[in-house]
């Protein structure tokens, strides 16, 4: 039996002919990185390769690392293996990695979604023999409503809170979800304030994407300034001393997990909005079908359930263990704590 083009090792996903890792979770010499979330982009590699738009994100999170950027669809060769990066639609700068060697093509998705959110470069289906897919929300119960409907609900919630004299505090991950929310909030309703972690990451992304103006919450910000306005903050700030300045406030959370009954209650959230940067059940199936792949490898999420279903409908599907955690791992908690005013 020949060696697979990509192997799952204790350091990460390894391409042996090229001697390069994809989103490794332990320090390696050379790493190709799909996107900037902490579970896929880790500190300690000697050399990082990623999409141009992800370069400033990685530098902001990891510091002065040795990193180079690539364009969408432009092939580059390492030890005779051809690689290229293609839009994953997950967050700004997120890529799928196409790997070609001796007539065989594999695609590693990292994290992805197929709905165009108006911010990230939309997902591009790539034909391949083997497709490595996340399945963070790989259950039939996960069915997303169109983004515009959810955004309309969020803006109306803000209007209602303002009419009741409350500050709206909306939780979303500092990289990705926060900027997606900012992009679609209606600034005619009021001012948009931000937590330090959100503001800092948003400033990194402003040269890349068009976002509305925001105002950083500092020690000098008065709660009277916030009344009736919107505050975007990371989930880690909920229950902290920082949020006391918002009183009286109403909380909301934008996450795919809000589709689960009880998730809002467990997180002590007043209002849940089902908005994810990952595919729902139908999105995963549509993405897989669009690749034409015969072999599917399922990682992080509902891997056993999803791969079993894929086998039932005719795919050669299996699971592999990784240290990626999908939407659970998008909170860089320690960094956000340090940036809390």
Automatic annotation (TrEMBL):
Its EC number is 3.1.-.-. It comes from the Bacteria. Gene3D superfamilies: Ribonuclease Z/Hydroxyacylglutathione hydrolase-like (3.60.15.10). Keywords: Exonuclease, Hydrolase, Ligase, Nuclease. One of its GO terms (molecular function) is RNA endonuclease activity. InterPro entries: MBL, RibonucZ/Hydroxyglut_hydro, Xnuc_lig_assoc. This is Ligase-associated DNA damage response exonuclease. The lineage of its organism: Bacteria, Pseudomonadati, Bacteroidota, Flavobacteriia, Flavobacteriales.
